[in-house]
């Protein structure tokens, strides 16, 4: 064990014994590895370092009661007819709005991106920052804010769940590590309101902030990660940065935030991991499912767990989701992935989810990948709504959808 991870574990033990000490600090500084001042890789920041994430002064805003604000003009409108929000959901601006609105699921736009020159993720390609806004203006004529029926389980998630669009999270220019702290704060606002955050867009590194926010809410090592990806994201190499798209899960395990055996990976393929990384993954008990394995096995392993789903869009086959930074053939089909989302939503308490690495600038005119991302979220919402309704069989099919509705 390295000196750094020994220190992190010592602090973790202290936090578990005396939680007040750590919660008083807002979040546990030791989880944010780049804040070690003795480390050469600490980002140096200018005097206006907080400019991009300082909250706006709202004291002169007209007074209003906390709650959801619906910006839609029409009762049965196409999304583009009002102000664009994801799924046409009403907007929430603060944790009080989420609480007053009794929100079940809050959608959060994630905009941390590679900027091309400064390689932050592994793709060195810019554009994932546009994904969240692209999802709000998806050219999808099947998108009606008032409709959301899942035709496997016959559940209308739009009426069963209270959704909110919680807007995008601010970023620091050229100090991407610090953006994770802001994501952590915004996610904590959602979690404090008792809502499930679903993050959309940006690069996969942001999932580290999901992990820290969940660790703060539920305690470290109390949430199981369902990680869908072509790649293991547990690289042993740091590639000159303390953290990047490819090593965030190894860092999370080393920091004591997630146990290896609570990390369930699905869809692994490509030309990684190498033998050394595979050995590290095995030693840490990581449950890596290569494409060779079936979904039933994964559902069994997830049984009874609190689950955070982190979905790298390249986990899908490129024929299903071409607009990703790192294409790898032989991925999950649309049917497999949608079934997995629905089933996990029914079987498990899903406490957070994110859908990362969608590059709308690379998408075709039909926004094939964007529509796939939308359907993954809808399938998950349907599963969550079905669970709320009392459906327990993860592979449940609605009888009205079988045998011409005569079953
Ligand atoms: Mn990934």
UniProtKB/TrEMBL annotation:
Domain of life, source organism: Eukaryota
Stored Gene3D superfamilies: Ureohydrolase domain (3.40.800.10)
MF GO annotations: agmatinase activity; metal ion binding
GO biological process terms, semicolon-separated: putrescine biosynthetic process from arginine, via agmatine
Signal peptide: 1-24
Keywords: Hydrolase, Metal-binding, Signal
Entries under InterPro entries matching the protein: Ureohydrolase, Ureohydrolase_dom_sf, Ureohydrolase_Mn_BS
Protein family per UniProt: Belongs to the arginase family. Agmatinase subfamily.
Protein name, per record: Agmatinase
Origin species: Chlorella ohadii
């Amino acid at each position: 064990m390295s000196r750094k991870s020994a220190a992190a574990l010592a602090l973790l033990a202290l936090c578990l014994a005396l939680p007040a000490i750590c919660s008083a600090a807002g979040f546990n500084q030791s989880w944010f590895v780049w804040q070690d001042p003795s480390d050469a890789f600490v980002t140096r920041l200018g005097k206006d370092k907080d400019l991009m994430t300082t909250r706006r002064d709202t004291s002169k805003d007209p007074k209003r009661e906390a709650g959801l604000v619906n910006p839609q003009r029409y009762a049965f409108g196409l999304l583009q007819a009002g102000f664009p929000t994801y799924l046409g959901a009403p907007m929430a601006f603060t944790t009080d709005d989420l609480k007053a609105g009794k929100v079940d699921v809050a959608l959060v736009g994630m905009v941390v991106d590679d900027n091309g020159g400064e390689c932050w993720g592994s793709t060195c390609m810019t554009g994932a920052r546009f994904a969240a806004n692209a999802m709000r203006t998806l050219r999808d004529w099947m998108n009606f804010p008032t409709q959301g029926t899942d035709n496997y389980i016959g559940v209308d998630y739009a009426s069963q769940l209270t959704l909110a669009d919680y807007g995008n999270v601010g970023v620091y220019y050229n100090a991407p590590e610090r953006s994770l702290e802001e994501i952590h704060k915004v996610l904590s606002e959602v979690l404090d309101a008792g809502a499930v955050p679903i993050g959309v867009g940006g690069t996969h590194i942001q999932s580290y902030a999901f992990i820290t926010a969940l660790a703060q809410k539920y305690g470290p090592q109390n949430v199981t990660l369902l990680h869908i990806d072509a790649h293991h994201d547990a690289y042993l190499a740091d590639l000159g940065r303390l953290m990047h798209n490819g090593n965030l899960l190894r860092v999370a395990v080393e920091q004591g935030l997630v146990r290896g055996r609570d990390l369930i990976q699905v869809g692994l393929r490509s030309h990684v991991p190498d033998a050394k990384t595979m050995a590290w993954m095995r030693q840490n008990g990581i449950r890596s499912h290569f494409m060779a394995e079936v979904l039933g096995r994964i559902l069994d392993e997830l049984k009874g767990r609190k689950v955070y789903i982190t979905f790298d869009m390249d986990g899908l086959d490129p024929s299903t989701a071409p607009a990703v930074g790192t294409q790898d053939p032989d991925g999950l089909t649309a049917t497999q992935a949608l079934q997995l989302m629905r089933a996990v939503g029914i079987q498990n308490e899903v406490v957070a989810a994110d859908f990362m690495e969608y590059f709308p600038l690379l998408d075709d005119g039909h926004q094939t990948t964007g529509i796939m991302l939308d359907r993954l979220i809808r399938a998950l919402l349907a599963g969550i709504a079905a669970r709320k309704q009392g459906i327990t069989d993860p592979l449940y099919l609605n009888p009205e959808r079988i045998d011409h509705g005569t079953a």
